[in-house]
């Protein structure tokens, strides 16, 4: 353990400070495809019984009309957030009309590209903007990519924690504001995340196989398991490999994570710099909008990063404007696969480990990074998602080879005091228990989710689609067998109805035309950014 990490843990372990560790916030966003009982993509509209995808804060859609997204409130204890996620699942399953939730990151056997429905949010200007953005995604990445699902984990520390650390941070200029210090500490967390996130891919990657038609005839290096299934023997997460969200334009985006202004400048450039192939397409075809603009990114959220600095935005505000004006409020971890062995896509033990991991990243030393280190970090991540379970796999750390298993054990050893401190604050041993479960995976690659997925696929005729359908149907029955109370159900029904009413009100009261609305939105891209 570094002296700095030890010092910070000792500070926070004091009686006057330890309670702050229980006052940060956690939240989960979970994506899941709707499919029919044959495992075919659902072509039905977003179920009205789930409310408005535009205005329901708990249940919406992601890129495709068939890709549901469930959003928990942010809670001090992740167990509370996951309980709400469980309730959302139980409600949704009763409103699907016989459809199922596909509980895997990689999609079912998909129809032709033009038959994958793009999410629809109604006729309001803001609803149409969301739809046009997704039309742009279809042009840039293809609709098939819109059907990949994952877990996003939102994490923040109580601001009092940063105050405690700031008081003893000898390297900080006294003139640096509380806001700026907090932002730079979150950016330092992100630097460490990019160094060590390969570990999450080994421990929790659960997408080593994919339906054959996902590739759409593209060249690949996957092996054939059966007529309908491709895989990598030692792969952990095809979702996070170069089969997932890849784009030539995005390859030119190299955000710098040495300070917040540099990160903001990188994204601000990407959302304002035209990209010739997109300019050749234009924003309209036959008078219909097909993308918001012809820039490298239509909006900031189009940048597919494994982690993002975030700030809750105000109405009409852009993400980079919020970060520039008020600094970083939390981070969003975006690389987690759906856990196909839990109906919620994530379990509490995994979440407890994520809390240990993210606290460790926040408290440990985080030196500034370089382009060379960025290349090394990316190579480690990609090696793990493609070959993570290969015996003796070597990664690179500061230009030197190190075994994945050895490095993982070192990291868990460094995290152990963090788990002890979190357990001391909450009581019990849940964080240390989560660590023990991960040590077992490092000791035996067959204990990882990706290895288990392959074993179960092989036991289901070597078919990923057949296994995922069978698994999803069994979990649906499990949830339906334990329904919500009448009071809980009524609460969700009321939320759904209120969201439908809210969408209608937006559509009734809006003024002006859509072209003017888009022009105003695009003009705000750089309007309030000072870096």
Automatic annotation (TrEMBL):
<dbReference type="Pfam" id="PF04262">
    <property type="entry name" value="Glu_cys_ligase"/>
</dbReference>
<dbReference type="InterPro" id="IPR014746">
    <property type="entry name" value="Gln_synth/guanido_kin_cat_dom"/>
</dbReference>
<dbReference type="InterPro" id="IPR006334">
    <property type="entry name" value="Glut_cys_ligase"/>
</dbReference>
<comment type="pathway">
    <text>Sulfur metabolism; glutathione biosynthesis; glutathione from L-cysteine and L-glutamate: step 1/2.</text>
</comment>
<comment type="similarity">
    <text>Belongs to the glutamate--cysteine ligase type 1 family. Type 1 subfamily.</text>
</comment>
<feature type="domain" description="Glutamate--cysteine ligase">
    <location>
        <begin position="9"/>
        <end position="381"/>
    </location>
</feature>
<keyword id="KW-0067">ATP-binding</keyword>
<keyword id="KW-0317">Glutathione biosynthesis</keyword>
<dbReference type="InterPro" id="IPR007370">
    <property type="entry name" value="Glu_cys_ligase"/>
</dbReference>
<keyword id="KW-0436">Ligase</keyword>
<keyword id="KW-0547">Nucleotide-binding</keyword>
<dbReference type="GO" id="GO:0004357">
    <property type="term" value="F:glutamate-cysteine ligase activity"/>
</dbReference>
<protein>
    <recommendedName>
        <fullName>Glutamate--cysteine ligase</fullName>
        <ecNumber>6.3.2.2</ecNumber>
    </recommendedName>
</protein>
